[in-house]
Design a protein that fits this description.
four-stranded mixed beta sheet, five-stranded mixed beta sheet, binds acetyl coenzyme *A, globular, alpha/beta, 324 residues
Length: 324
């Protein structure tokens, strides 16, 4: 069916209570607040409590997004959960969230594109909504990266945090949407880079969960170019530009990557939403967490043009441009 737009109805997020500061980390590994802030911009991150699973974080974010949208669980017929830290190998953590919400119709599945997961999930939900087969989607990013970190590896354990964010997308006929909704999305991956950021375990290979391993410099080297490429694609597809966007909400991996990408694209610093200082890198959860912060503090308003981007393990990378 032609002429359906996927319009944002609501946004919500959830962060676990426990906060781990750089000072806390300096007591665990040989690092310092100064090193972490200078290289990454991160000051603190949240960590899930024992027994608090990805599904629990995702559920709370989903409930907050439904409340923000003024909807109830039964209004939802599609759940896409972007995560690389599912509760179990299977079933999909999305079906746990579906069940906890009391939804018994439609479909729910997980999507795995590491830090790019939320952008990939928006593009996937948008494609499904535009067919008319589904009406309203919960698009969730939820992670417990604390469970796959090697807490003895100072090169990685200082970078990541736990959390969840969600948006509700609704398929609305174009004449009612009035230009709002997901305008374009651009997804990419290149598996030749898969050994630069990976987890050294899995059900088919080791039978263990494994730990995150990263060649930080290699990731950094590719990040800015890949991010800016897919944003240029989004601008070319829509005729929008660094000047016409209202907000740039990037994946929150590292302050230096965010600043360098914005600078390369000519995006004014005051348009950049940054939460990495207080959330760390929450992988697929970072964009919806940042969207919720910027929506709740009054920065993002209905009608605003919002640019999303992410890059992560695979490598995977992507952009999405939407009018709120
Ligand atoms: N505290 C103190 N020293 C440290 C720490 C730490 N936490 N970690 C590493 N070091 C040391 C290293 O051992 C090294 O010491 P040496 O010179 O004596 O050997 C020195 O600091 C420099 O190490 P590098 O790894 O070269 O440091 P770099 O300047 O590249 O910064 C960082 C490391 C922050 C990881 C950087 O490479 C980076 O930001 N990369 C991108 C990583 C990223 O964003 N990943 C996630 C994106 S994808 C996704 O979101 C899943």
């Amino acid at each position: 069916m032609i002429g359906i737009h996927s319009v944002v109805r609501g946004v919500g997020s959830y962060l676990p209570q426990k906060v781990l500061t750089n000072a806390d980390l300096a007591e665990m590994v040989d690092t310092s607040d100064e090193w972490i802030v200078q290289r990454t911009g991160i000051k603190e991150r949240h960590v899930a409590a024992e027994g608090e699973f990805t599904s629990a974080l995702g559920l709370k974010a989903a409930q907050a997004a439904l409340a923000d949208a003024g909807l109830v669980a039964d209004d939802i017929d599609l759940i896409i959960l972007a995560t690389s830290t599912p509760d179990q190998t299977f079933p999909a953590t999305a079906v746990t969230i579906q069940s906890e919400l009391g939804i018994t119709r439609g479909a729910a599945f997980d999507l795995q594109a590491v830090c790019s997961g939320f952008v990939f999930a928006i593009a996937t939900a948008d494609a499904h909504l535009r067919t008319g087969a589904f009406r309203r989607a919960l698009v969730i990013g939820a992670e417990t990266f604390s469970r796959i970190l090697d807490w003895n590896d100072r090169g990685t354990c200082v970078l990541f945090g736990d959390g969840a964010g969600a948006i509700v997308l609704e398929g609305v006929p174009a004449d009612e949407a009035k230009g709002r909704g997901v305008l374009t999305s651009h997804l990419r991956s290149d598996g030749r880079h898969r050994s630069k950021l990976f987890v050294d375990g899995g059900p088919s290979s080791t039978g263990t969960v494994g730990h995150l391993r990263m060649e930080g410099r290699e990731v950094f080297k590719h990040a800015v170019g890949m991010i800016t490429d897919v944003i240029v694609d989004a601008f070319a597809a829509t005729g929008e530009s660094a000047e016409t966007i209202d907000w740039f909400v990037p994946h929150q991996a590292n302050r230096r990557i965010i600043d360098a990408s914005a600078q390369k694209l000519g995006i004014a610093p005051e348009k950049v939403v940054t939460t990495v200082q207080s959330h760390g890198n929450t992988s697929a959860a970072s964009i919806p967490l940042a969207l919720d912060v910027a929506r709740k503090d009054g920065r993002i308003k209905p009608g605003d043009l919002v640019l999303l981007e992410a890059m992560g393990g695979g490598f995977t990378w992507g952009s999405a441009l939407l009018r709120w």
